[in-house]
Amino acid sequence: MKRLLVLFLLFVSSAAAQGVRFSATVTQQGTIGTSTNIVVLPATPIVKFCLHPANAVPCTNVATTYTDQTLITPCAGGNQIVRDGTSTCVASPDAQNNWGVWVAPNTLGYDYTITLPGGVNLGPFNVLSQTTTLNNPCTIGGFIYVSTGGCYTTVSAAIASFSGGLCGTVYIPSGSFSGNITINNTTCTPTGQSGITLQGAGRRTTILKPSSNAAVITIDSTTAALQSINIRDIGFDNTGSGFAQPAILFQGANINDHHELHRLFMLGFKNSVNVTGRMVWQTFDDIEIAGDTDIAMNILTAAATDNLIRLKNITVTSAAGAWGIQVSCTGACGGSSIFAKVTLEGGDIEAGTGGGIVFNNIDSPSVLNSYFESNGGPHISVTGTVGRGIFIAGNFLHSNLAQNLMSFTATQLAGIVVGNSLAPAGGGKSYVQTTSGSGNGLFIIGNFDTGTHTISADANGTYHTSVYGSYAPVTLNTSGAQTPNVAGINHLHYQNTVAATITNFLNGDPGQTLDVTEEGSSTVAFTHANTGGPYMINAQSVTLAAGQSCRFIFEPLNSRWFETSCTNGSFATLTGTETLTNKSLTSPALTGTPTVNGVPIAGGFTSVNVTPATASANTAADQNGMAVTVTAGALNSVSRTLLIQLAGVYSTPAASTSVITDKLKLCTVSGCGSGTVITLATWTTTALGGIQATNDPFNCVLNATTQTAGASAAFESHGNLTIDLAALATAAESVFADGNTATVGTIDSTAQLFLQHTKSFSNASASNSFTDRQLIADTVD
């Protein structure tokens, strides 16, 4: 576990007994999905601020804290914390885990401890050691202090004191300061490595305002490189100034990199942050922006490189521009974007006149765990020529407008949109719009999305966007003619007691697959249609009874659902009269068993077993599942093919790492425990990833073709095992092919044979079990 705690000090300007301040944020390393090293906010941390040395963890020798730097009013009742911008003592950090205290200076400093949920205790941590009140110094230890009545009464004067010397830190106390500041390569040395830090007392207490029609702070690399400027715990206020400028402006095409902005507040600017030149390895963290008259964060360039920009915990409210945040390349970006890897994480963009965030000509843009509400345009948009490597995950998008909440219209789209909640309110709708172009591969998976999708094809009529639901089944009990809404689902289960007839499925996405199963006591029928409905094999309507199913795939060109397979479905009754002209049909009587060269052969063979067979022994050996009897001679013909289809479920104990092996065997004695036994196919999975499977599905499909018939029959045998290897039975399945590289044999195909399925788990356990539910063996020649 890692804690990222940022502290800052307030040094006062007189020798009177005044306090010092310590502020910090409690964060924690976490994992989201497959992404590790994600900084998250632990719930309800408990902070104890104590005398040094701390007497325990958590400490109980708590220090006296105060409501403000005057040290007049002590905090009482265990409420030690005074949050930034307030003078009220409270017991806990704010919603973002920010906290702070006012204490008397001393020479030993103080200790604090943190208790996280689950009783995890951290600390003690020593802070504010060797603090003493300062008598309005100009510099101490290379640090410069802005102070009324001191050497440097303005921020500009303090920064100017670095000229020709080493870069350093400027501490700005509580209060309001007017001025316009420019930092460039001449501000301090070494050239190109500014390293200046502007440190305030808190974003609600240290306030900078413009004094002229320019940005409050301009960071300018026009002449030469500039790096590592840090601005922390400062507020910017443009209220009533009449100026239409940024709070902070980054400009210049030379290196302008590695800057960090932390815990800032900006109010009433045109663009609170405006970037017109190069920017690489930039961090914007915990920044509140309100009331901008244009785009709040406008990162816009035509030629300079802007890469690896991290936007963390950015709050934008009531921006009046086209977007709350814009990241855009307007120059020669097509094909090889000069923008790459821009991430918004933990953001909050609300109540804007325009959209939320737009990435224009950006490679690898990400939006993670962010909140969007009631913006006038799309909350998330990817536009321009390139939009590759998109990762949009875990966001909440809320609106009462009928609009596209997500819009992906870049010519080259590639990436994934997963686990987002598109939640309309009132009369709102949640739309996802994509416009396909050549070379795309955008996957929209497992989102809560009740609206429609607008997905366009490229110039060749090809769709490059795939939309999948959460794979959770939808159950219907309706009857009669109907057109179910299948937006975002892949499984439709009927449990009707009265017949239902489906004439079309509504709101499908290109390439969407759909399984329809009848599980009720009645039937469900599909009415064949060439366009605008189910397109059934042989152009005949199909009726399903209980336990039967059909699979479809949506073909957008003709707006039809193409049937790919139906299990035990029956064709609708053919009516009318067929006339045979000039035909003579005779049916010679056949008696006995037909033979070829004296060897008996059988006609078409079919066997179905739907009596569940369960095995759960505490063993790593093969365990028998379902079996069927193969009629003597049924396979005794060269090129005769036996199609075998098997379906079942399996379960394991917790944290299982078993390798699962499935076999289909052919033998001369029932159960394959003796006699001649050959293995038609073996499938061996990868090891389970330390999970517990509960009724996870598996399916085997095998074609065994007789290559040599007779007493020493051999078979060309190939097929696949499809199996769910995840903890959830709704997860996507894995596919394994057989390992046969030669024919399988030999066995007497003129005699009665037995087809047997077995399964084994490499780690024996009484909690390992499997149930074969369906076994079908059918000759298909």
Brief overview:
By secondary structure, the protein is mainly β.
Tell me about this structure.
The protein has 781 residues and is an all-beta fold. 1% of the residues lie in helices and 46% in strands. The protein contains 1 helix and 68 strands. It has a 21-stranded mixed beta sheet that branches. An 11-stranded parallel beta sheet has the order 14-17-20-23-25-27-30-33-36-39-42. Strands 57, 58, 60, 63, 64, 65, 66 and 68 form an 8-stranded antiparallel beta sheet that branches. Strand 2 and strand 3 form a beta hairpin. The longest helix is centred in the N-terminal third of the chain and has 6 residues, at 155-160. The protein is elongated, with a radius of gyration of 36 Å. Residues 1-17, 130-136 and 571-591 have low confidence and may be disordered.
Report the major sheet: 21 strands, mixed
Question: What structural category characterises the helix and strand content?
Answer: mainly beta
Number of helices: 1
What distance separates the N and C termini? Answer: 63 Å
Mean pLDDT: 83
Shape: elongated
Identify low-pLDDT runs.
1-17, 130-136, 571-591
Please bin the fraction of helical residues: under 10%
Spatial extent as radius of gyration: 36 Å
Q: What's the count of strands?
A: 68
Beta-strand percentage range: over 45%
Topology summary:
Layout lengths: L19 E6 L2 E5 L2 E6 L5 E6 L29 E2 L6 E2 L7 E6 L6 E7 L3 E8 L11 E2 L2 E3 L9 H6 L8 E4 L2 E4 L2 E3 L13 E4 L5 E4 L7 E4 L5 E2 L2 E8 L10 E4 L4 E2 L2 E8 L5 E3 L3 E12 L6 E5 L4 E12 L5 E7 L9 E7 L2 E3 L4 E6 L5 E3 L2 E3 L6 E4 L2 E8 L2 E4 L2 E7 L3 E7 L2 E4 L4 E7 L5 E5 L2 E2 L3 E4 L8 E4 L5 E3 L3 E3 L8 E4 L5 E3 L10 E6 L5 E3 L7 E2 L6 E3 L4 E7 L4 E8 L2 E2 L23 E2 L2 E2 L5 E4 L3 E3 L7 E8 L10 E11 L8 E8 L9 E8 L11 E13 L4 E11 L10 E4 L6 E4 L5 E9 L7 E11 L2
Parallel strand pairs: 11-12, 12-15, 13-16, 14-17, 15-19, 16-19, 17-20, 18-21, 19-22, 20-23, 22-24, 23-25, 24-26, 25-27, 26-28, 26-29, 27-30, 28-31, 29-32, 30-33, 31-34, 32-35, 33-36, 34-37, 35-38, 36-39, 37-40, 38-41, 39-42, 40-43, 44-46, 45-47, 46-48, 47-49, 50-53
Antiparallel strand pairs: 1-7, 2-3, 4-8, 5-6, 8-9, 10-11, 48-52, 49-51, 51-54, 52-53, 55-56, 57-68, 58-68, 59-67, 60-63, 60-68, 61-62, 61-67, 63-64, 64-65, 64-66
